[in-house]
Amino acid sequence: MAFNYQRIVIKIGSNVITQENGLPDLPRITHLVKQIAAIKKQGVEVILVSSGAVASGRSLITVAEKSDAVAARQVLASIGQVKLINTYSHLFEQFQILCSQVLVTREDFRDRMHYLNMKNCLEALLQYEVIPVVNENDVVSVTELMFTDNDELAGLIASMLNANALIILTNVDGIYNGDPKAAGSAVIDEVSGNELDFSTFVSSGRSQFGRGGMITKSTMAQKTAQLGISVHIANGKRDNILTDVLENQVTHTRFIPNKTASGKKKWIAHSEKSATGSVLINAGAKAALISNKATSLLPVGIVGVITDFKKGDIIKLIDDADKLIGLGIAEYGADKARERVGQKNQKALVHYDYLYLQG
Question: Alpha-carbon distance 50 to 48, whole Å?
Fold first, then answer.
């Protein structure tokens, strides 16, 4: 059975388009572009999230990475990003397709205005049948502003644009139920819900060139699937992988989407690292929130304010075991919240419409 998606995000990992010597694998990039062109010709909207700037930089300049690793990465990324986007531009032109460059940082997702500006730009590009090529802006991203990796960025973009699916290309056939190199290990074909704890059987090792290992991919994929988006993890080194995944004709791992969420909830869902404040909730509030009924967080269910926040900030809801229960937009600031702690008949601190609960 083929998957009939209208809009997809394709994430290409650095380990897919980089050779063992650390330089770009041009034949592989060319083959992937050919497939993307074929998919686009079928009327599917495609957003490409591509790593590979640092590898492209390595093909042009030699830097002494030992002296300052961050500066070396910034130099390679800055030079390499030009080469990478030019490579894509040249290859897509052969199919009469325009592509554009979109460089982002985590900051662009923290602020609702930035977020909507970026969303509007990407929507406009798709309207003009352009393929946006998105990458993290490594030149200005230093540690605290970095995404975990481009998998996280791809998940954010898929959520932002209400994509039907996210296809993550890596250098293995999917998520295995053991060490991929061990006899007897097999690819998990489908994952639904949160029943799998990947850390028990997924290696935490990272690819030679990428920042994110398979555990970060799995966690991000689960979160994205919870928001109603199918996620496919497949082997980008295989020929015709994209068309085969869409035709469901190749072994890979698929995360089944299990619900749809509003656009605002999708933004909140990915905002844990940018939450400013936090409140401690009681057992009654926790039970009400995680029940299947639509419930707002009322002051009567709050034990106390842990860290300050202002009206409109994203805040964390924490239980007495210090576990994150959810994220939401504060309807008023920490001072008012403190005054109303434990009181009945008060305005909700977080309205249900602006509340995202951890799976």
Answer: 6
CA angle 13, 138, 172 (to 5 degrees): 10
Length in residues, the chain: 359
Beta bridge partners of 273: none
φ, ψ (nearest 5 deg) of residue 319: -90, 180
Contact 188, 175 (CB under 8 A): yes
| Amino acid (1-letter code) at residue 25 | D
Q: Tell me how far apart the alpha carbons of residues 104 and 122 are, in angstroms, rounded to a whole number.
A: 12
**Whether pLDDT at 140 is above 80:** no
The sign of the torsion formed by the CA atoms of 56, 44, 148, 239 equals negative
Q: Measure the CA–CA gap between 357 and 283, rounded to whole angstroms.
A: 15
CB 109 within 8 A of CB 156: yes
Residue 156: Cβ within 10 Å count: 27
Chain-centre distance of CA 255, in angstroms? 14
Q: Which tens digit of pLDDT belongs to each residue from 235-271?
A: 999 999 999 999 999 999 999 987 666 667 777 877 7
Q: How far apart are CA 187 and CA 251, in angstroms?
A: 7
- Backbone CA torsion sign across 141, 146, 151, 157: negative
Edge to edge, what strands does the sheet with 302-307 contain?
302-307, 277-281, 314-318, 324-329, 355-357
With CA atoms as reference, report the closest residue to 152 among 216, 74, 227: 216
Distance, in Å, from the CA atom of 232 to the CA atom of 244, rounded to the nearest integer, reads 12
**Which phi-psi region, left, alpha or beta, contains residue 228 (left: φ > 0; alpha: ψ -120 to 50)?**
left
Q: Using alpha carbons, list the distances in angstroms from residue 259 to 161, 165, 188, 226, 265.
A: 16, 13, 21, 6, 12
DSSP type of residue 273:
G
What is the structure's pLDDT at 69? 78
Name the least confident of 31-40, 243-252, 274-283: 274-283
Of 302, 358, 303, 359, residue with least CA distance to 331: 302
Q: Phi/psi of residue 54, each to 5°? A: -65, -40
